[in-house]
Write a structure and sequence with these properties.
Length: 243
């Protein structure tokens, strides 16, 4: 008798608009997604996390994002959110410290508030365009999700959460994660927003169709992606964490 695969793994990043939109659709189809999948945050690590990964023999499958890919990402995300009528504000990332929100999420999960904190962080980043790598922004997200802000903002200095974060990135390395979002169920792997339907057909064939609301509102998005990149706007740092 064939054993069923283990629980699906979802690798997500607060940095990625595709991760945000994929999880939004996933939860519309499977409202219990936070309890029925194993969630792994993924981000560009700082020096301390890199050292911990080196000790584990892990590395990254990402490559640096080109200017052309930045431009495509901006225009593609605008097209997607306009098509679904999703409100969005462009976040600006300058020297971000991605441990702040991602280790903060691990602290929230430890406290049993992973879903509430996730919702607050994505609202801050994608609906209001706030800098979620600023501790004061993350503190506000923590407070609104029913958490002690200091516990969440101090996560970057918590040795246990640092080790847990390194273990998440090691898991991504072992699962050959090369882009976000990434879903893995047994031997089956699905990368990106446009693979979500295939994942759901395999994992939850009885799930209702994903509702997609047509919209024409430009959601306050800029018309010229080129101008954003030229001015040092969206994702001016290194690797291709947005997809």
């Amino acid at each position: 008798m064939t054993r069923p695969p283990a629980r699906p793994r979802l690798f997500f990043s607060f940095r990625s608009p595709y991760s945000w939109l994929t999880i939004r659709r996933l939860r519309a189809a499977v409202p219990q997604a936070f309890t029925e999948l194993d969630w792994f945050p993924y981000w560009d690590p700082d020096a301390r996390t890199c050292a911990a990964l080196d000790e584990r023999g892990a590395e990254f499958h990402y490559v640096q994002m080109s200017r052309a890919k930045h431009l495509y990402l901006l225009m593609d995300t605008k097209r997607l959110v306009q098509g679904e009528g999703v409100p969005m504000a462009w976040p600006i990332d300058v020297d971000p410290h991605w441990e702040v929100p991602h280790l903060g999420w691990l602290a929230a999960r430890r406290a049993g508030r992973a879903e509430a904190f996730y919702d607050e962080v994505v609202a801050a980043r994608w609906e209001r365009g706030e800098n979620i790598c600023e501790p004061k922004v993350v503190a506000g997200c923590a407070e609104r999700s029913g958490l002690d802000p200091e516990v969440v903002t101090d996560a970057v200095d918590d040795p246990q959460l640092r080790a847990e974060g390194a273990a998440c990135l090691e898991r991504a390395y072992l699962d050959d994660v090369f882009g976000i979002p990434y879903l893995k169920w047994g031997r089956h792997r699905f990368w990106g927003l446009d693979r979500l339907d295939g994942f759901l057909r395999l994992w939850r064939p009885d799930a209702p169709p994903i509702p997609v609301r047509a919209g024409t509102d430009d959601a306050g998005l800029p018309d010229r992606a080129e101008a954003i990149v030229t001015s040092g706007g969206y994702d001016t740092d290194t690797t291709g964490g947005c997809g």
